[in-house]
Inverse folding.
């Protein structure tokens, strides 16, 4: 005797189709809702803000500043005023009128001659008074920022580009002063790009913008 229950005969099952009328009703309801939301007769939400086009500078891959390649001041080489036979005089802190455009904001490092060479105005000064050329300016920074310099040498600090795989080609490094202004090395706050759209109604719910701040997701 066969103990297995009999397989149901699928071919004879009645297909459980949705009744045609109900289907038509559902389609009609969805179309109605689409028209309702499109026309928005209740809310009449405010128009979306126009997002100002991004500054093309945001897409720039250039370093933060242009590294100087020669030591000049107002187009004149340093030695046109500083002869170099005598140590430059003057109080480094209370600097005079000539270089007063230089804002020296380098923490406790506030003496011109911590960096500049007293006898060779176009060069920089190492620990022992020997000179460092502009082309090797990272050695000047290394004198006080040893750990950052080590990171930079190994590629962990500063932006390294070119090839990682030495068999393919060389890597490129950017020198410290291509990013940091030596006189004011901390980065100034960056300007943000325009925010994306938010639903203008939720923006209203977020309340008035705080002083000087754009409203949530909105612009001033
Ligand atoms: C047009 C003339 C002129 C040129 C060019 C010039 N300097 Fe000077 N510099 C002066 C004078 C004048 C002083 C004396 C103090 C002052 O008025 O700032 C001075 C002072 C200095 C000092 C000492 C800080 C102080 O104020 O005592 C440093 C460092 C210095 N200069 C660096 C340079 C370097 C580096 C260059 C080249 C990139 C340069 N200067 C080019 C005129 C010049
Ligand atoms: C942290 C080291 C450091 C200190 C401190 C420093 N400088 Fe400089 N300075 C540099 C370097 C590096 C350059 C060349 C690179 C550059 O300009 O980007 C330079 C460039 C200059 C130049 C030529 C470029 C320009 O901006 O006109 C002048 C002039 C100058 N320094 C004067 C001074 C004077 C005056 C002081 C003191 C008030 C001073 N520096 C302090 C590192 C320093
Ligand atoms: C004579 C020593 C000395 C030299 C040379 C020097 N620095 Fe500095 N640097 C300092 C000191 C001191 C500070 C401030 C640290 C503090 O006040 O906490 C500082 C601060 C900085 C900061 C900000 C660090 C922070 O944590 O916010 C940067 C960036 C920097 N230096 C970059 C440079 C670069 C680039 C050079 C080479 C052009 C350079 N420094 C050369 C002594 C030096
Ligand atoms: C490609 C750009 C770039 C180069 C090249 C670069 N830095 Fe920086 N550095 C930065 C940025 C970005 C920061 C973070 C700054 C901030 O938060 O304000 C920074 C931070 C620092 C600080 C602060 C402490 C830290 O480690 O975060 C020091 C000191 C410093 N740099 C020194 C140097 C020295 C010295 C060199 C060259 C040997 C160098 N930098 C090269 C971009 C650069």
């Amino acid at each position: 005797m066969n103990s297995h229950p009999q397989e149901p005969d699928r071919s004879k099952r009645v297909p459980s189709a949705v009744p045609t009328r109900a289907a038509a009703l559902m389609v009609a309801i969805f179309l109605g809702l689409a028209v309702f939301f499109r026309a928005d007769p209740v809310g009449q939400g405010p128009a979306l803000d126009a997002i100002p086009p991004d500054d093309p500078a945001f897409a720039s891959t250039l370093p933060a500043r242009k590294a100087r390649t020669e030591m000049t001041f107002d187009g004149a080489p340093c030695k046109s005023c500083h002869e170099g036979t005598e140590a430059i005089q003057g109080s480094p802190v209370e600097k005079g009128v000539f270089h007063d455009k230089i804002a020296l904001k380098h923490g406790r490092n506030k003496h011109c001659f911590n960096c500049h060479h007293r006898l060779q105005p176009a060069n920089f000064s190492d620990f022992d008074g020997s000179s460092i050329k502009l082309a090797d300016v990272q050695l000047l920074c290394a004198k006080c920022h040893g750990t950052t310099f080590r990171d930079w040498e190994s590629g962990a600090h500063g932006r390294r580009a070119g090839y990682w795989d030495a068999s393919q080609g060389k890597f490129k490094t950017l020198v410290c002063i291509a990013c940091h202004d030596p006189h004011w090395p901390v980065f100034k706050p960056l300007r943000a790009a325009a925010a994306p759209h938010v639903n203008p109604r939720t923006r209203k719910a977020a309340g008035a913008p705080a002083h000087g701040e754009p409203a949530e997701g909105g612009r001033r």
Notes: Residues 215-220 have pLDDT under 50 and may be disordered. Residues 180 and 188 are 10 Å apart (CA to CA). The radius of gyration is 35 Å. The pocket of heme C (ligand 1) is lined by residues 71-73, 76, 78, 80-82, 88, 90, 92, 95-99, 112, 116, 121 (CB under 6 Å).
